């Protein structure tokens, strides 16, 4: 059978130790063991099946998501899973749901922005899921511009309460995941008003629904915002709308790590920077970078395996056609994506470290690295999600016609992934933040302040001073170019973190060699993509450009025999991939054929509607009626 033999033969060609590469990909032997065990647990549990997801109506889809979430929670309790194992389980269930926001944003917000007492009160409830929370920041009128939010939280000194209110239609909370149908609580961001004075945006814990019958509490209007892009996909999530009509909450439900409101209505600032109110976004952006490597590697795994199974043209001496993976054009589109998946994995690891480091410093009242952490998380979130969204679509095209079938797994992956370019900060808005950070760094160059961390290279580039003078003309005017500069800065981070990874001790036969090839492919591909910029700025000569392209071609040949093993190293189960084209065994055609017959349209041989709409045309009754 074609697919079986092809993938088995590809695997036998690998020139490196795949098991050791799995460890590198996972991050450690321990993480590999956990993710391997939990992914199999999910794959073998029939409740977590997802093959009919794209065919369900919204209501059935959502109910099925609730069923899975409840089952996941039950298994987590029964098996006494650790926090790490539980997070892996939710990851492999692979269905956006209210749980993501509860664990991914609600809890981290209370941890990051709540006082010790507030954490003690709310976290045990949230950890045991006695309450379910979401993150209600974005409004109908404002998402990117957080300082433009309109919801108000007015302090009432008479009752020692805040009055949460939506003064306009555009102040309606709009988008928060988990809000529409499930959450009992939310961290709501609103303007803090004391004695008619506006102190800007802060977070407040607000109960939304009764814990007895799940009905909205008085003064609260709440619902789902409607169908989103694609079938299945992000429609498993109840993104919601929420309005407040003078809803009262106790004073101690304002998150008070950054600033406190006293019983007398006095605002007291802590010694931490006010930007910590934005802290959850930094945390989630960092997570999104690691997630990008998962989504991209998943698409690349499907496209690579299928490219080795698929044959078109080029009849060989043995009478069979050429595997499409052997075409140089296919390699030049696929292998840079394979390299990007690895590159994003390693930059994600580094970003996780950076985030932990900044947190430890914050505990010790050292706030010096916060601006860099913000710039890195914002910029890398933008770069990796844009590249991943484009990469998934490229993988679909790499799979030809079959890539467009839902059973390839790629349409749903694309639909579920693309909002990552928008949520947690629109990618352009985030790059503008990076640009501001870069300009600020450049402006300090002359003052004797040495650039550090990811901007250390700036101290070595003389032209940057002139660059600063040019930007003085107007940030807004030059913003399109500045966004390009921000992307270039982030690309430099990705490449340098890949190189740093290679400097670590990497065990396993041939593993380091493969990673070196992938690192070079990533760097040279970026150079190739932006050749115009490199040449026009005199960074490289035309001769160097052509050498770089020749080197890239030779690297593709080096990676070719290892391609299947390099995607096997992601260690994805067929359940997680949910793709007929990406099956581990390569048994593509019989399964594609089998899948087609499962479509509800094939339940009957003659379709519903035949008698009303097809027969009259065929029998020319419609035409006769007209005549
Ligand atoms: C298990 C876990 C799973 C995780 C996944 C969960 C599922 C995910 C599912 C998806 C869920 C999706 C969920 C969702 O989508 S949740 C909603 C997400 N929303 C956004 O991301 C909104 C984006 N907008 C902003 O962040 C702000 O409005 C920006 C930044 C654009 C402007 O801001 P602002 O209007 O204030 O003006 P400013 O630019 O003068 O900035 C002022 C100063 O502040 C500094 N600054 C700015 N920002 C930060 C920061 N963050 N940390 C530290 N510092 C920061 C900045 O450098 C400047 O410093 P300086 O130059 O003055 O010194
Ligand atoms: C699937 C999904 C889930 C979400 N989940 C949540 C959630 O759980 N909680 C929550 O609070 N929010 C959530 N959001 C909201 C999300 O965070 C916002 O949609 C996002 O921050 C973008 O803001 P916006 O919609 O206001 O875009 P806009 O800012 O209106 O963007 C529109 C266009 O304007 C451009 N633009 C905006 N400002 C500038 C500028 N200064 N300079 C140049 N161009 C600019 C953008 O680049 C974009 O092209 C979610 C969104 C989605 C799609």
From TrEMBL:
Domain of life assignment: Eukaryota
Entry keyword Calcium: no
The species this protein was found in: Carya illinoinensis (Pecan)
Keywords: FAD, Fatty acid metabolism, Flavoprotein, Lipid metabolism, Oxidoreductase, Peroxisome
Domain called Acyl-coenzyme A oxidase N-terminal: residue spans: 17-132
Entry protein name: Acyl-coenzyme A oxidase
Residue span, Acyl-CoA oxidase C-alpha1 domain: 278-439
GO cellular component: peroxisome
One of the record's GO molecular function terms: FAD binding
Subcellular localization(s) per the UniProt record: Peroxisome
Cofactor(s) listed in the protein's UniProt record: FAD
Residues annotated as domain Acyl-CoA oxidase C-terminal: 463-619
GO BP: fatty acid beta-oxidation using acyl-CoA oxidase; lipid homeostasis; long-chain fatty acid metabolic process
Zinc in keyword set: no
Protein family according to the UniProt entry: Belongs to the acyl-CoA oxidase family.
InterPro entries listed in its UniProt record: ACOX_C_alpha1, Acyl-CoA_ox_N, Acyl-CoA_oxidase, Acyl-CoA_oxidase_C
């Amino acid at each position: 059978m074609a697919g079986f033999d092809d993938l088995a033969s590809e695997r036998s060609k690998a020139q490196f130790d795949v098991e050791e590469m799995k460890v590198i990909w996972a991050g450690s032997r321990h993480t590999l063991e956990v993710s391997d065990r939990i992914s199999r647990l999910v794959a073998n549990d029939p409740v977590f099946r997802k093959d009919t997801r794209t065919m369900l109506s919204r209501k059935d889809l959502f109910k099925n998501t609730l069923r899975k979430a409840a089952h996941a929670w039950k298994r987590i309790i029964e098996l006494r899973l650790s926090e790490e194992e539980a997070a892996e389980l939710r990851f492999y269930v692979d269905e956006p749901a209210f749980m993501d926001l509860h664990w991914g944003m609600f809890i981290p917000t209370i941890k990051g922005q709540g006082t010790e007492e507030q954490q003690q009160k709310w976290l045990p409830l949230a950890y045991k899921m006695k309450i379910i929370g979401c993150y209600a920041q974005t409004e109908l009128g404002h998402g990117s511009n957080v300082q433009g939010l309109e919801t108000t939280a007015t302090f009432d000194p008479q009752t020692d309460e805040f009055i949460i209110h939506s003064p306009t239609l555009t102040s309606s909370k709009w988008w928060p995941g988990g809000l529409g149908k499930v959450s009992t609580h939310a961290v709501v961001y609103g303007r803090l008003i004391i004695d008619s004075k506006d102190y800007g945006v802060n977070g407040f814990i607000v109960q939304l629904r009764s814990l007895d019958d799940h009905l909205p509490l008085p003064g609260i209007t709440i619902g789902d915002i409607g169908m989103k892009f694609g079938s299945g996909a992000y429609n498993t999530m109840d993104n919601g709308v929420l309005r407040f009509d003078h809803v009262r909450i106790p004073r101690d439900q304002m998150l008070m790590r950054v600033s406190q409101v006293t019983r007398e209505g006095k605002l007291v600032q802590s010694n931490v920077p006010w930007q910590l109110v934005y802290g959850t976004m930094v945390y989630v952006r960092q997570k999104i970078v690691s997630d990008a490597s998962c989504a991209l590697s998943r698409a690349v795994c499907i496209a690579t395996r299928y490219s080795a199974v698929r044959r078109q043209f080029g009849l060989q001496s043995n009478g069979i056609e050429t595997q499409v993976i052997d075409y140089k054009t296919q390699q030049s589109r696929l292998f840079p994506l394979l390299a990007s998946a690895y590159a994003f994995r390693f930059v994600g690891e580094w970003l996780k470290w950076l985030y932990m480091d900044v947190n430890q410093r914050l505990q010790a009242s050292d706030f010096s690295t916060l601006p860099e952490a913000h710039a890195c998380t914002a910029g890398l979130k933008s770069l990796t999600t844009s590249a991943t969204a484009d990469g998934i679509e490229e993988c679909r095209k790499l799979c030809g016609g079959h890539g467009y079938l839902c059973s390839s797994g790629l349409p749903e992956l694309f639909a579920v992934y693309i909002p990552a370019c928008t949520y947690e900060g629109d990618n352009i808005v985030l790059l503008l933040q990076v640009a501001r950070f870069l300009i600020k760094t450049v402006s300090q160059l002359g003052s004797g302040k040495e650039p550090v961390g990811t901007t250390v290279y700036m101290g070595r580039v003389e032209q940057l001073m002139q660059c600063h003078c040019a930007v003085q003309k107007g940030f807004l005017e030059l913003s399109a170019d500045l966004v390009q500069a921000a992307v270039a800065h982030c690309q430099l981070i990705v490449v340098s973190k890949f190189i740093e990874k290679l400097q670590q001790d990497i065990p396993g036969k041939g593993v380091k060699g493969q990673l070196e090839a992938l690192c070079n492919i990533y760097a040279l591909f970026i150079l190739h993509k932006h050749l115009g910029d490199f040449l026009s700025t005199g960074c490289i000569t035309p001769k160097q450009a052509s050498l770089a392209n020749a080197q890239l071609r030779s690297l593709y040949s080096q990676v070719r025999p290892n391609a299947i093993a390099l995607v096997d190293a992601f260690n994805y189960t067929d359940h997680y991939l949910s793709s007929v084209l990406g099956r581990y065994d390569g048994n593509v055609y019989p399964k594609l054929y089998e899948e087609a017959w499962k479509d509800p349209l094939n339940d009957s041989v003659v379709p519903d509607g035949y008698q009303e709409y097809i027969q009259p045309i065929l029998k020319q009754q419609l035409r006769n009626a007209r005549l």
